[in-house]
Model the fold of this input.
Amino acid sequence: MAAMKRSGSMLLMFLLVGFPVLNAGCGGEVPQPTMEASEGEIICTVPESTDTAAENTGEDAEASWREYLEEYGDELVYVELNEPVTLSFDGEQPEELELRDSIIDENGALRYEERGTELRAFTWNEEQQAYTIYIPGHFGSMLSSDSADYEPGACLRGMEIHYQWNGEEYTSLLALRTDAGLM
Done:
């Protein structure tokens, strides 16, 4: 009985003292990315730990894009080539930031694996307190032999925002429509 009281007291002490200390080390909520274009908000998924996202390779990654397109496909924003978009985070800004840009099909699969994923750079805009990126052309968008792929807005771009916050890495997905082209 005394051992049970002691273990109950230790659990209560941990809950009162230890758990808040551990939780304080987590640094609060992971910042949610928001991307805006002139045509409206580009929906970003809830950030996922990159350790978990890294497990999503091959068919799993395709399933993630497929799920995104099933849920948000009717809401994809059109962005003209070289149009600026802004990326902001609620709360603190991430420590590191990278955007991976791929051409995907309507089922979420990479269209041109041989041209892979292109990395994109952001510029910090102090006035807007947001990052800016001009959506450039993608080499892979010029590989299609189907003339319909060169219609305005026919190019489906899947992008992954990878960022570090409080020493942990996170990934968020987004997709948009743009044009085929290099410029």
